[in-house]
């Protein structure tokens, strides 16, 4: 790593620590920079950072679990709560959770910046426990919707902070691999919800157990975070430099503390003001990276991935495959693709995986269009449709699923990272809600052939957007990425 310039201390600005003092004086800053000239960064052992990343990944497991927990039990829930056959009420059970997630995402950036990453994890676990308990004990539709909305608030707060935390505590050499844990944990949560929901048709009231079980990982997350490291980047922003050193030592080992602190000091040149407003995100000097992040999440949802997950049971049933087995196929392919992404993220890079992912999804929609148009209800059409759907899910899992959250937390400068991630996640939830709300209606109006052609067009737009706008971040430190993306004044 090239030596870092010894920049004058007057260029740095910190927030005071909560006790009103700065933990490290200006002479110490110079010491970090000078020391880094002779000390090279070495890849630390994974045992330092891996436990912290695994605990943070529990949020993603809960995200997948709560999205899938009502799929199998929905019929039993509607029967027990007295709205059997009411498709609007059944749809509200799903969409209310998405609405809560949108609300939570609006506040996640502020909470993460104000209280720290660790405490935010603990705060997001609270509504997930309360909401799950409310859903598990309710005897009315209103209580169920209230519980799902409260859970959604936790889901809106947690995932953006998980992406932030994992990016900030990961060594550069394995940051992509660690980032893939988010998607893998989500897949495991979805599979867990599927497996736990299997007895629902044979055991009365089993759906209540499904909700109660989700409180276990939520409680584990809140308790385990007590023993995890706080983000050194957040501590440094708060002026708590001595504590940042201690956390870097936990995460990277003693040999890399000086070089890691020097990287923070070098990037601090651009952190002139800690106040970030929505107008700055949209119109300010970093608006381009925020535009890239928001567009990536919008295109991820406009590809129709969540609608495809929803529609998969119908397609498989048409081919004579039971819905339980169909969901298992989709879940296993999703998990397999996520594992492939984990293995390739730090070898091929983020941009390559995104390009091939969007292109693969576009090709799979061609299979769906052919199946819907040419063979019409023949066995060949059914097998082509099933194959295209599995290819779509696999293509999504290797890139468009895991990469955006990781990439955005890498390209956003430290000063705006939490709030920019929250803004982009709110865009994600809006488009997620819109696609889920409109998919079946559009299917009726347009027919499968035209609808899949439209989704394929969005996938091609995604590939073109990535090719033109996304930079490769593989192997770079967060500070190197931030400096590379600095706007030219």
Major beta sheet summary: none
DSSP summary: helix tally: 22
Beta-strand content bin? under 5%
| Shape, per Cα inertia axes | globular
| DSSP E strands, number | 0
Helical amount among residues, as a percent range?
over 70%
N- and C-termini, Cα separation: 27 Å
Structural class: mainly alpha
**String of helices and strands:** HHHHHHHHHHHHHHHHHHHHHH
Short overview:
This protein is mostly helical and 489 residues long. It contains 22 helices and no strands.
What features would you describe in this structure?
This protein is mainly α and 489 residues long. It contains 22 helices and no strands. The chain has helices at residues 26-36, 46-56, 58-68, 74-81, 87-115, 117-137, 141-169, 175-197, 206-213, 215-224, 232-237, 241-252, 257-267, 278-283, 287-302, 305-318, 323-348, 350-375, 379-400, 403-411, 417-469, 478-484. The longest helix is centred in the C-terminal third of the chain and has 53 residues, at 417-469.
